């Protein structure tokens, strides 16, 4: 877990008076929480942090703080943000009373266990303003702008941080923001809106977005003037550090957009009309290009397939690509990614267990949650985090003849697996599940499972006779069984 962005984020939140931060990063959440808490203690500011077990819950708790006119924040991975869509969409209509910032962290390249969802395009769909970080040093100033927009227009604001951006020196002054008291004002037409009031809130939302666009204008843009009068580049802020040196070398003008939604269209249209060709450089989804009213001279992900060959740009992929657009031979050599043969990697205890299980049991069906701990396992099918237990329950109800096993880790189990087990108990689904448990989750998981009378809990001893896998399916009775193994023993 990198600490650079964690530290600068913590200092930026404190300097801007954030008093509550919920973290739903799942993997690494404890490290982030520790870093933020130590910074708050050092600066003597009451920033309370929580490591929540679900993006939806984390969003809702942080949102409640902002209803009381306090500044709050919600931190999650970009690919996990869709899990919070229910409260997120509702909060866009109702708005907030205090400043509320949603911080979506993306890693480049995206982890193999995540999906390809893009928080920037997701925010455009939800009609939530987005600000993007171009280097870590501007974190504090960007959070100041985000909280300013959030409080002035009473709306949640997304801050998108891609960890590929440079680690430039921080502008943190060591000052702390204003401490605020909770002050909730009743307004049923807003907080408990009926369909009629929802319609009015939607009209208000559209007016709000127009005002946000007009309020920023050129303040949300970084313009680098070049000598070339034929070609110009529009790029999102996270890619500015890649585009800038190349553009200066070739004399190309660049306009970088700090607020990709709602897009300040007027100055961008003026820039587009100044050049014969415009290249739009942005990651994953064509959020910027999608909002442009003029597209005849514009090439990007929306209209040109060659731009979509790379999901997220880096120096090895972007510089040769830009050189080809200019018709020049690239100075940069693209790097070739090599993948290690899984067969050559040391086999973990879980891998050996599953291999032995397949030898002893004819054609078992093994479905796993897609997580960092399970991604290399020899299973039949991966599903979204927390869904393996539900799939196995459905297979059990369908009277599948093959013995079936769900595999999860405790992050995914807390995230959604607990509800799936509860549903399996409620509907008497005879399932078998293997859960790899992180040390910090042992008390919660065992307390939960111990309270469910129909559930049989079997701790596996990976060094004992159970390691050969024969005991998992030897009990053919229709009972709900959860096998647990510690993360240390699974390695």
Structural class, from helix and strand content? alpha/beta
Characterize the main sheet.
Answer: 6 strands, parallel
How many domains is the backbone divided into?
A: 3
Number of helices: 17
**CATH level 1 class label of the largest domain:** Alpha Beta
- In CATH, the homologous superfamily of the largest domain goes by the name Thiamin diphosphate (ThDP)-binding fold, Pyr/PP domains
What fold name goes in the CATH topology slot of the largest domain? Rossmann fold
Shape: globular
Give the termini separation.
19 Å
Task: Offer a concise description of the structure.
The chain has 491 residues and is α/β, with parallel strands linked by helices. It contains 17 helices and 17 strands.
Salient structural properties:
alpha/beta, Rossmann fold, 3 domains, six-stranded parallel sheet, 17 helices, 38% helix
General description of the model:
There is one protein chain. With 491 residues, the protein is of the alpha/beta class. The protein has 3 domains: 4-185, Rossmann fold, CATH 3.40.50.970; 219-326, Rossmann fold (3-Layer(aba) Sandwich), CATH 3.40.50; 345-490, Rossmann fold, CATH 3.40.50. 38% of the residues lie in helices and 18% in strands. It is built from 17 helices and 17 strands. The strands form 3 sheets. It has a 6-stranded parallel sheet, with helices on both faces. The protein has a 6-stranded parallel sheet with strand order 13-12-14-15-17-16. Strand 10, helix 11 (287-291) and strand 11 (298-299) form a beta-alpha-beta unit. Helix 1 packs across helix 6 (139-153), helix 3 (55-67) packs parallel to helix 4 and helix 14 packs parallel to helix 15 (410-426). The longest helix has 22 residues, at 195-216. The protein is globular and about 75 Å long.
